[in-house]
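Translate structure to sequence.
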């Protein structure tokens, strides 16, 4: 690019103005026809000034500096909550064929939920991380540690030391009162752009969502608020600035926002977070059996009366006490690394929820607690029975 001095610029401007005057005069001389009295009258009519009406502003717009009420609401929510959104950076060590460690960096978002430095985010944001860094709104970078994870709901809690600093937090809302069509706001760090705000509406409720680990979350919030890579773990807010969801996934053929995003409802996220902070894990109810999802070869070999459900391969003490029947361990059939036993009950429903697959079975027990009584419907010798089974603590990793 060529640079010019002040005198050269002045000379160029003067020459340009002179050329414009000359060309303008020639254009007038050769284009505009001679006027007669009729054309003079038309020109005078055309040149008659038209009165301009003053623009009227509403009193509310004037008070807010010309902003609409909805715009003002967006700004107020963002100003009040954006400092609670953090940038989560993870480092995971990957190894080559030559056993060379190669660090892989991942990014996501999180939201501070208390003064102890607990951050609510997605499990897939911190999964397998060897190191976690939390970047606060003022640019401070601190080390984070995992307080607990729940892959079944794609929720994790990470904690950092606030060192006595007062933290901005977001209050919990109530996702059970959400309505399709109500406004929502999402804040996160898409593509590394810190604390980006997007807005939209609740597009749907109780949407099933399958996680990267194969778990099925039965009820998520669908929204058209733009959610992109890096938004995961960030807050979804209502018009009161309350947390109503944790942004988790998008549905898009291109990998970028297509207006279909999903968030974990805050009622689920809050329940899970409280368990993770207190116990480091989610205490979840479990039927003490060895569950096996039915598959065609097994159904045919054992000549089962149903082709979908969970076979009670073996039953533990609590299950047997409730009347659940496991298979005959003296007649085991090997299949790969597993052994299957004939004659066990087939579970087809738990607490009124149909159970056809192992994911259905996990989902039916997802919000139960050890010690609770579950209504378990089984098929035994072609007959349907309902049993009351006392739940035990779910084994680790289940």
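Result:
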């Amino acid at each position: 690019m060529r640079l010019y001095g002040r005198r050269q610029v002045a000379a160029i401007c003067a020459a340009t103005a002179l050329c414009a005057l000359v060309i303008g005069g020639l254009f007038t001389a050769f284009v505009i026809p001679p006027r007669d009295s009729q054309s003079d009258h038309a020109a005078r009519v055309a040149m008659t000034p038209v009165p301009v009406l003053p623009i009227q502003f509403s009193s509310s717009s004037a008070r807010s500096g010309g902003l609409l009420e909805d715009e003002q609401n967006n700004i107020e929510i963002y100003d009040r909550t954006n400092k609670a959104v953090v940038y989560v950076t993870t480092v995971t060590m990957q190894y080559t064929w030559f056993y060379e460690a190669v660090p892989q960096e991942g990014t996501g978002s999180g939201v501070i939920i208390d003064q102890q430095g607990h951050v609510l985010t997605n499990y897939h944001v911190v999964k397998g991380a060897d190191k976690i860094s939390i970047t606060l709104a003022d640019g401070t970078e601190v080390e984070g540690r995992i307080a607990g994870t729940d892959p079944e709901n794609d929720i994790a809690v990470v904690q950092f030391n606030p060192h006595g600093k007062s933290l901005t937090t977001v209050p919990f809302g109530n996702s059970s009162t959400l309505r399709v069509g109500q406004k929502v706001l999402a804040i996160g760090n898409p593509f590394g752009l810190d604390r980006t705000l997007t807005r939209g509406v609740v597009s749907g409720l109780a949407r099933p969502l399958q996680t990267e680990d194969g778990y099925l979350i039965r009820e998520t919030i669908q929204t058209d608020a733009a959610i992109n890579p890096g938004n995961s773990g960030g807050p979804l807010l209502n018009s009161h600035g309350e947390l109503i969801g944790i942004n988790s996934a998008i549905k898009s053929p291109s990998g970028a926002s297509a207006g279909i995003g999903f968030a974990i409802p805050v009622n689920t996220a809050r329940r899970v977070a409280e368990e993770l902070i207190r116990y480091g894990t989610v205490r979840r109810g479990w039927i003490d059996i060895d569950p096996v999802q039915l598959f065609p070869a097994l159904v045919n070999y054992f000549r089962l009366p149903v082709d979908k459900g969970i076979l009670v391969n073996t039953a533990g003490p609590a299950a047997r006490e409730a009347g659940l029947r496991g298979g005959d361990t003296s007649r085991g059939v090997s299949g790969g690394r597993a052994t299957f036993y004939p004659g066990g009950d087939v579970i087809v429903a738990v607490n009124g929820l149909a159970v056809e697959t192992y994911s259905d079975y996990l989902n039916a027990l997802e919000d139960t607690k050890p010690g609770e009584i579950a209504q378990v419907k089984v098929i035994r010798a072609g007959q349907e029975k309902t049993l009351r089974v006392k739940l035990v603590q779910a084994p680790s990793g289940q």
